[in-house]
Amino acid sequence: MRIMIGFDHRGRALAGRIGEWLAGRGITSETTGPAEGESGDYPAAAAVVGRAVASGRSDRGILICNSGVGMCIAANKIAGIRAALAVNPTMAEHSRRHNDSNVLCLGAVNQPDDVALASVAAWLDAPFEGGRHARRVEMIRKLEGGGEL
């Protein structure tokens, strides 16, 4: 599995910890964000990660800014992205099981690092359940393409 991690200046530290944690699990990751000491705009990181996931260059993405909200809004503007904000493992798991999320958004200040890492673990380990949820994801795809429900 390949994971692309994007961050702005507020998400740098957590992105580093997540990258190390993923490496410990044998998961390949790549990061994008501002250089150390520089400010960064969250839409830029969201665009890089979202496009990598939508194109298949990356299997999934993780985005981190101060609250996670801005990253989530920006990522969801990219066709094929189902970004979900999670502040705990249950939200992360359900975003995979029910919404087939392919980008996880975290806030650097929303939870302690151990909870953020547990959220990443829950998100990575949870399968998409399909069934009635597949019908709903298809409805999201129609909306994304400008279609009617």
Description:
This protein is α/β, with parallel strands linked by helices and 149 residues long. The chain has a single domain, classed as Sugar-phosphate isomerase, RpiB/LacA/LacB (Ribose 5-phosphate Isomerase B, Chain: A, 3-Layer(aba) Sandwich). It contains 6 helices and 5 strands, in the order βαβαβαβαβαα. It has a 5-stranded parallel sheet with strand order 2-1-3-5-4, with helices on both faces. The N and C termini lie far apart (33 Å). The model has no long low-confidence stretch (mean pLDDT 96).
Given the C-alpha coordinates, what overall shape results?
Answer: globular
Radius of gyration: 14 Å
Distance between the termini: 33 Å
Q: How do the strands of the widest beta sheet line up side by side? A: 2-1-3-5-4
Question: Could you tell me the number of beta strands?
Answer: 5
The CATH homologous superfamily is named: Sugar-phosphate isomerase, RpiB/LacA/LacB
Overall domain count: 1
Briefly note the structural class of the backbone.
alpha/beta
What amount of the residues lies in strands?
15-25%
**Main sheet specs:** 5 strands, parallel
Note the total helix count.
6
